[in-house]
Amino acid sequence: MMQAKGWWKRLMAAGALLAAPVLAWAQSADPQRWQLNMGRGVTASSQNAYEAHMIALWVCVIIGLVVFGAMAVAMIRFRKSKGAVAAQFSHNTTAEVIWTVIPVLILIAMAWPATAKLIAMYDTRDAEMTVKVTGYQWMWKYEYMGEGVEFTSRLDRESDRIRQSGEQPDFEKNPHYLLDVDNRLVLPVDTKVRFVITSDDVIHAWWVPALGWKQDAIPGLINDAWTEIKTPGVYRGQCAELCGKDHGFMPIVVEAVSKEDFARWLASKKPAAEPAPAPAGEAEGAEAPAADAAPEAAPQGAGQA
User: Fold this and answer.
1) Residues in a beta bridge with 194
2) How far is CA 187 from the centre of its chain?
3) Are 189 and 256 in contact (CB under 8 A)?
4) What are the pLDDT digits (tens) for 66-123?
5) How distant, in Å, are the alpha carbons of 104, 142, 209 from that of 139?
6) Handedness of CA 225, 107, 55, 10 (dihedral sign)
7) Which of 169, 204, 211, 291 could form a disulfide with 217, with the two C-beta atoms 3.0–4.6 Å apart?
8) How far apart are CA 94 and CA 92, in angstroms?
9) Smallest Cα–Cα separation from 180: which of 161, 166, 199?
10) In the 3-class helix/strand/coil scheme, how is 171-233 assigned residue by residue?
């Protein structure tokens, strides 16, 4: 009995998520247990996808209610037991025009905003920065174009140790088992970032659901995409193209931070600048006085010590 009540509560909670999409704003970027509706994500692209999904969903709901409502009325009010006699005709021009024109108008009304959103998803112009993503078996390489910063990102060591040891993972200690990496891709919020995506060996696919898009990484081909993250946080994804035996072990982790924090992080990752070599004439002239002064300086330093 208690078990049945538990299932009933879960079913009601799931139904509430489906029937009340206005509550979807409260969902986090990560999927939740018993979640039925798609999340809003944290970018303009994901928001566009969510809005297009909801429009299509409610159009389908209304069409379903009309069709099944008409069927119910026909079966109940005009059934044989009440003496109803079926009409005998083969064609009805008016009916055929109605059930042809109305669906066409619905499709046009749905296609117009969907096409505009799809075009916007592929518009990479006016990007403020570019990140190159390269897929390898089985890791990702990130390059901040024009900044001299690049690194690889692969499954974190603890997840890799657990999976290879065969032990049962403890999800309380490792809540992101197989979804953590050693080096996160750090991006600034409120910044249009262009991605150029390719592969060095086989076909991979770079996919972070919260960003609202997925793009194949194909050897010898450059695909591009863009994102503009609105909310700081950590967003996780995976390779979404079967790429070999360790396909399931090349996660993606994007960390979105403020512009100020990103600038500091990027500066810390840049290689230290080497001092420019002095001209040959100046270097020779500077060495002679230094050699003469060295014997006098040594005793002074020793006396201080």
Assistant:
1) 130, 226
2) 12
3) yes
4) 999 999 998 998 888 888 888 787 788 888 999 899 999 999 998 988 898 889 888 9
5) 46, 10, 18
6) negative
7) 204
8) 6
9) 161
10) CCCCCCCCCCECCCEEEECCCCEEEEEEECCCCEEEEEHHHCEEEEECECCCEEEEECECCCE
